[in-house]
Amino acid sequence: MTAKEKQIEFIKVYLKPKLKEEGFSTSGQTWWKNKGDFFIVINLQNSQWNSKDRVSFCFNIGIALTERLKDPTKNKATYNDIVTNLREEAYLSEDRQKHKYRQDGWLGYLLTDKTDLADFIKELKFDFENEILPKLSRLSNLDDCLNYYKNFEVWGEILRKLVND
Length: 165
Description:
six-stranded antiparallel β-sheet; 165 residues
């Protein structure tokens, strides 16, 4: 199995079902969850230098304010709607910043044609279920978002300004 095929497989067997279970909708490689005044958005971004046998990718994760969505029906948020655009490492604890699938990728995670897919899914599952999703699930209202993202100076300030406008 090539690295690209492994990425497609982990999205199909783990990521899409898990995010659907958590209440996310999807289009392509972007997932969003409507929380009323805002959406939680997760976008998988591939490196432009990927090959079939070496795939590096990251997750852009943040919130999109419902009133500022480009979708006029306000039913869908995209990567371009994110106002707190952080990568997955911002949601990971220090000991998860680098592990066997996060140390050699130029963008974040790395899959190769030699990667053990079951082990990769186990590690990504840990990152999502123990680190990323619990933090995102605590974002119930705009005050929660303001309190969480104030720890990220630039993005917290941008969010505060947009909410106040």
